[in-house]
Amino acid sequence: MDIEEYMQLLKANQLICMLSLRNRLGFVRSGHLPWYAAQLMESDVCRRYWRRFGDLRAQEAEGDERAEHFTRVLDKAAKNHPQAPPTAA
User: Fold this and answer.
1) What is the pLDDT of residue 78?
2) Do the Cβ atoms of 23 and 33 come closer than 8 Å?
3) Which of 32, 36, 67, 83 supports an S-S bond with 61, CB 3.0-4.6 Å?
4) How many angstroms separate the CA atoms of 24 and 16, rounded?
5) Percentage of residues in the chain with pLDDT exceeding 70?
6) Which H helix or E strand runs over 80?
């Protein structure tokens, strides 16, 4: 991975971590997380980050119900974005 891509993905990680922290602190109202996740996935770099590291984040979340929920919501938002690559049937 070149340095430019690394820096962009690092910024996407920072945005996702900020949303995760706000969610954990209770600043994301109940039911609003899918909307925030969809907004994040409007960003091409966030979608690239999620394609590359989403599985790793899911592994890290295992055993933490709140983190697992957060990861599922972000994964769904990434997959539902109009520019998401089609999934194999």
Assistant:
1) 95
2) yes
3) 67
4) 12
5) 93
6) helix 65-80
What is the rounded CA–CA span in Å between residue 48 and residue 43?
A: 9
Please report where in the chains the tokens 């938002």 appear, as a residue.
77
SS3 at position 85: coil
- Residue 87, SS3? coil
- This prediction has a pTM of 0.87
**What is the spatial distance between Cα 67 and Cα 55, in angstroms, rounded to a whole number?**
13
Alpha carbon of residue 44 to chain centroid: 12
What does the alpha-carbon distance between residue 60 and residue 68 come to, in Å, rounded to a whole number? Answer: 9
What are the tokens at 18? Answer: 């900020």
CB 49 within 8 A of CB 12: yes
